[in-house]
Amino acid sequence: MTSNESGSARRLRFEIFRFNPEDPASRPHMQTYELDEAPYMSLFIALNQIRETLDPSLQFDFACRSAICGSCGIMVNGRPALGCRTLTSDLPDVVRLHPLPVFKLIGDLSVDTGTWFREMVEKSEAWIHAEQAFDPEAQEARMDDDLAQAIYEGERCIECGCCVASCGVANVNPDFAGPAGLNRIARFMMDPRDTRSDADWFEVVSNSDGVFGCLGMMACHDVCPKELPLLEVYAYLRRKTLASVFADQGA
Amino acid sequence: MSTDLISTDVLVIGGGLAGERCAIEAAAAGHDVLILSLVPPRRSHSCAAQGGMQAALGNCVKAEGDNPTVHFLDTVRGSDWGADQEVASIFTQEAPVAVRELAHLGVPWTRVRGGKNSYVIKGQRVEIEEHIENDGLIMHRDFGGTAKWRACYAAAATGHAALYAVDSEVVRLGITVRDRMEAVALIHDGGRCWGAVARCLRTGRHFAVVSKATVIATGGYGRIYGQYTTNATINEGMGAVIALNTGVVPLGNMEAVQFHPTALAPSNILVTEGCRGDGAYLLDKDLHRFMVEAEPEKQELASRDVVSRHMKQRMRDGKGVDTPYGPHLWLDLRHLGEQHLTTKLREVWEICRDFVGLDPAKDLVPVQPTQHYSMGGVRVNKDGQAYNMAGLFAAGEAACWDMHGFNRLGGNSLAETVVAGRIVGRRVAEFVAKSSLDVQTGLAFAATRTAEQRAAEWLGRSGNGPSVYDIRNAMGETMMSKVGIFRTGDELEEAVAEITAMLADCDKAVLRSKVPGMNPELTFALRLKGMLRLALVTARGALLRTESRGAHYRSDYPLRNDAEWLSRTLVRWAVDADEPAFTYEPVGEIDLPPGHRGYGSDERIEMRESLQQYNDGVYERQAEHGRLATAEAPGSRLRRGEWKELV
To answer: Nearest C-alpha of chain A: how many angstroms from B549?
Structure first.
């Protein structure tokens, strides 16, 4: 239970970025709303309450409200986070909300992450490049469970865009694969079902739009709601890339 | 979108697992496919499926002897004999292929670890030696209502992993997906569907998509229970609504609503059945494990309808933990250990930490039964073809195909999405290959104008009418309190009266915001009437069905009544009619005769006629209700009598 159960409810002040590109009269500005805090109040609950009782025009995105669909990335007091699992009890009395940067604005707090991630998947061909077509008659190919768990670790990314929004490089270089993109590349690189060679991967990852574009500020690692080990992911990518260079030189 | 009309071979409404798997099948056959989705496809509610996908691979020791026939028996018993047994048979035979296909597409299924493994089974920690020769094959976990361990899983993020794999294939094939798009009406001439009118959720503009075939794959309608659902906010049932609004397409078994035993209190976020499958207990406020005496054989792993009823009864008996949000019970995972919880149940561990600040390795987890799954939906034949409307198909939770009957087993729906996607996608491809797009564009434009006028009418209302959100909240309260786990005729009559009044209120409701663009309040208002109609046919269907079957439990008619109610409810709502019309069709050809499920009550009212009498002419009778012809003869996939060597 949160502390506010014992005392009187806090009055929360929300300062929210507003802009509706579909409305010629709309100009970007901040708008303020006030709410009484309630136990277990998340930004999912608070924003819906604002929309349903104070301002029905407010745009934002939620779907699963359980931190698995990745719809609700927003800037909370300057830091990217999932709105659904951000509890107001962890926030100060004043909460400033902005849309995620990098992504195209749809309206107010709502941004177009779908297009960005589809392009990332297309560019890095983030799917299994299988040797053979699926054989419906065959038993599944075996995989060591430890390897399955290692792949699953990277697979856990929910493409919320928090890491991309936090990334200094992604904010200035639209061609940068971004933390989520690099994580996805590493996930397929370690998957033996994907037949791409080190040389194939070298083309994708070994340049300034790939892992060598990363400046190592690692905000991505700090803000990832799924706590993906991005530091290890980049080390893995750099190691694999360098190894393929040395292998080439050796040959 | 600035174009008023676009065309495609196949229009898929819904970008979750069922829709995308269906799209892949049609695109691979060379057809032009367009997917419309409310959200980017990877954010569809399929991603929230946690614990597993049922497929009888039989890879681990506790799965030995499993096969599609055992899976068939479990599924039909789970359905309380409401399922179409041929569909259950098709499903159970194809599920292993679909799961292996997902492995091919990259799902990191948990694998068998050959050698000694430690499990918790019925409250005991046991060591089992997994065969070395099975090392590396897809592993299974236990789930409710199954004779064998059968659920294939990727930790507690099975749906997420499956959805990403399938969506990657959609991207690889270059299938067009338009996200933030909502289908608001079907384009049809009363007997043939020619696509849908869509509303762009970026701009608020309407446009027509004309297609040779249209697939509804919009998932469930849990949000008619307001906040009392594990479902995502996007599960408002619009696929079922646009089918119902045709006036001729029936919805099947809408009163069959599943309540999941373990939603996290008070937010109603799902906590997977995989917890109990892996050995977690249910405890009351005295920390008593009440399911052991309630269901000595299956304990916590009876079917969901049975476990939810025992839980609700326990709370009615004053054994719930009281809170300002109402009573709850406890889920005890502590004995599974931190290592297990942070790997095989990692997403559950995160949810407990993030939403209630608890560590399930040390703390009890507050849970309560909550609306979870819609067994009902757009009634289709075994090819996924909707009744009464050529060219309209449905798959996944949006459809009543109908392998779940009155209760679906955990893990069967996630498997259904990809199995049905494969099968229905193939039928869609065959249908499209034989048809041409000889649609009158006037029909499409007229449907678009009607949709635009509906939005304009909402924006034109003024004065002091009720708020759309207040009506929605009232609907949720009525549905959960009066069309819930235990139902009575009196309460259902009240529910019908209340929802009828809400429908009248909906016509008087006024928007507070008239901003241009998508306008979130208008977007919801456009859905509200349809949601109320779904609520009404659910409540009415429950009132009319004077028996208890699966998740539909009538305290005033507590027995399953195979003499009178071995039937599937069909409901149509004729255009301009004030009320829906209910009819009942046979569940299908019955191969496994009605009997005891192996859990829950063993009392029932037996069939009066013989099975042969029931089955005689069953397909003709379904055709009278609107079932269209299938590619293969009806009944051809039923493996008659194969179950006999197992019982």
So the answer is: 30
